[in-house]
Amino acid sequence: MPDYKLLIFDWDGTLVDSIGRIVAAMHQAAEQCGMPRLDDETVKGIIGLAMPEAIATLYPELVEAGHVERFHACYSDCYVAIDRIPSAFFPGVEQSLAALREQGYQLAVATGKSRRGLQRILDALGWQDYFDITRCADETASKPDPRMLHEILEHCGVPASQALMIGDASFDLLMAQRAGMDAVAVGYGAQTLAALSAYEPKLSINHFMELSAWLNQTVAESRTEEIEHVG
């Protein structure tokens, strides 16, 4: 069984219940910038990408017109207005993260958010030093490029074989594949478990606390294998 040392979490749709706010902010930005309103599922399909890439995917005509930055600024203003009180954690997240830290796991975040956006939330929570490292899309390559995972692995001194990526979007799981890393698919965020199954996650969950239970079982099975091998 894998001996995981490092757990890397996506933020939106994995740790916090923010998908609805992202979709609403995108709709507001589209209206203010004179762009057509797209359906909710289409917008959900880009969550996880860095925002410039997400906007270019939804509205390629903005790239040609050179208006991606304007739309991005409008989206950011809309999202901050909606998210004045940061989105709530999904049930079980805070308790599970605290328990995982107590068990000795290193914890990291790999997100499509900007550094400014993530830092605003971490500061509000008093979580500035909660994670061993956080990486944001505007500091590195956007998902599904594996660069941010490579940077996290290097910082933590952990090989890919001992790290686990947990996310709710195809970009998360594809990024993990490209980094040679196992992944857990989350089914309560932006995309369904059926859509994520194509990326062959090690585990698929519909509640965050299922992750801790599975990790505990994995540790127990690894210890059993070690005892049997010695015997």
Protein described:
Keywords: Hydrolase, Metal-binding. Its cofactor is Mg(2+). Pfam families: HAD_2. One of its GO terms (molecular function) is metal ion binding. One of its GO terms (cellular component) is cytosol. Helix 1 packs across helix 5 and helix 3 crosses helix 5. Helices cover 49% and strands 12% of the residues. It is built from eleven helices and six strands. The radius of gyration is 18 Å and the shape is globular. It has 231 residues and is of the alpha/beta class. A six-stranded parallel beta sheet has the order 3-2-1-4-5-6, with helices on both faces. It folds into two domains: 155 residues, HAD superfamily/HAD-like (Rossmann fold, 3-Layer(aba) Sandwich); 64 residues, DNA polymerase, domain 1.
Give a concise summary.
The chain is of the alpha/beta class. It is built from 11 helices and 6 strands. The chain folds into 2 domains: 6-17 and 88-230, Rossmann fold (3-Layer(aba) Sandwich); 19-82, DNA polymerase, domain 1.
SSE diagram, text form:
Blueprint: E1 6-9, H1 19-32, H2 40-44, H3 51-58, H4 60-65, H5 68-82, H6 93-102, E2 106-111, H7 115-125, E3 133-136, H8 147-156, E4 163-167, H9 170-178, E5 182-186, H10 193-196, E6 203-205, H11 209-230
Parallel strand pairs: 1-2, 1-4, 2-3, 4-5, 5-6
